[in-house]
Amino acid sequence: MSTQPTGQPHPWQLNFQEAASPVMENLHDMHSLLLHVITCIAIAVLILLGYILFRFHHRRNPYPADFTHNTMLEIFWTLIPVIILVVVGVPSVRLLHKMETPKNAELTIKAVGHQWYWSYEYPDDKNEGKNFEFDSYMIESKDLKPGQLRLLDVDNPMVVPVDTVIRVLVTGADVLHSFAVPSLGIKRDAVPGRINETWFSIKKPGTYYGQCSELCGAKHGYMPIAVKAVSKQEYQEWINSKTNTPEQKTADNSEKETDQKPKEENHQEDPKKGHVIKKYKENL
Predict the structure, then answer these.
(1) Are 48 and 214 spatial neighbours (Cβ–Cβ below 8 Å)?
(2) Are residues 168 and 189 in the same domain?
(3) d(CA 275, CA 271)
(4) Is residue 174 situated within a structural domain?
(5) Which helix (H) or strand (E) holds 23?
(6) Model confidence over 19-71: pLDDT tens digits?
(7) Do 85 and 188 have their domain in common?
(8) How many domains does the chain have?
(9) Domain ranges, residue 46
(10) Residues 3-7: what's their mean pLDDT?
């Protein structure tokens, strides 16, 4: 499952990260709309102030007018802000509705924030009841390999298939955290005792990075998020590697090989890393 890092910040970046999901594409469009509206307002106000300073300078207008109302002017400066609010508000409400309601989610993943790492649970019933979970820790600077990103790469990323609507259930195990991946346009608070919901869909394979966006303690800046998008075939292979228990693998291999040296006895989860520790014993 070799994928190139795509959803990451770049040096001297001025705009948002490249959009990798439909929601983020809409956020880009909304940002562009607001930027144009704000620019037009600023230019209009600047021109109006310049005209007022020039036209009503005391040398050109030594005797100020004695009237206090202008009906047409008051109508205009009431209607124009209303029109601006409608132009901004309608697409904004549509986008908020789209962000809050995932339609026809094909896969559900639960993200749990801990001090200071993330754990992911795959409880979807399409895994044939073979649910599993794992922890995701940041790779220390001294352990980084060429091409890996400091403070962003993790040992166990969240793996998802492309062209799939992914529902993410977000919660916290201890304190407030926030699950945020900028290139996917998602950001949800992880609140202990409460489940918040978000969603995304990725079209292009790659690795998309985020970080906890809620001050959660001393190592707040050391619990990154990595979402690896792969093809559906690669995802199914990854699911099979996670859901096939060691006992099943041993039983399958025993049908083909009669003289196996190591035999798996059991396994347990390391509470620190969440990796599977295997114990073997020799056949007597």
Answers:
(1) no
(2) yes
(3) 8
(4) yes
(5) helix 22-55
(6) 889 899 999 999 999 999 999 999 999 999 999 899 888 888 888 777 778 88
(7) no
(8) 2
(9) 22-60+68-100
(10) 59
Tokens of 17: 């990260």
Are residues 214 and 238 located together in one domain of the fold? Answer: yes
Handedness of CA 112, 180, 207, 91 (dihedral sign): positive
Residue 68: predicted pLDDT: 79
| Alpha-carbon span 262 to 259, nearest angstrom | 9
Q: Decide: 149 and 8 in contact? Cβ < 8 Å.
A: yes
Residues 175 and 227 in one domain: yes
Task: Considering only the C-alpha atoms of the chain, give the largest distance between any 2 of them, rounded to a whole number of Å.
Answer: 112
Q: Which value, in Å, is the radius of gyration of the alpha carbons in the chain?
A: 28
Closest CA to 23 of 171, 166, 172: 166
> How far is Cα 137 from Cα 172, in angstroms, rounded to an integer?
16
Phi-psi label, residue 24: left if phi above 0, alpha if psi -120 to 50, beta otherwise: alpha
- DSSP label at residue 192: B
Strand order in 196-200's β-sheet? 132-136, 117-122, 107-114, 166-172, 196-200
Q: Is residue 277 part of a domain?
A: no
Question: What is the value of pTM for the model shown?
Answer: 0.74
pLDDT digits (tens, 9 = 90+) for 151-176: 999 999 999 999 999 999 999 999 99
* Residue 151, token pair as written in the block: 């403070």
Looking at the fold, whether 79 and 159 belong to one and the same domain comes out as no
State how far the alpha carbon of 82 is from the alpha carbons of 31, 45, 87, 89, in Å: 20, 16, 9, 10
224-254 pLDDT, tens digit per residue, is 999 999 999 999 888 888 876 554 444 444 4
Residue 157 is assigned to a structural domain of this protein: yes
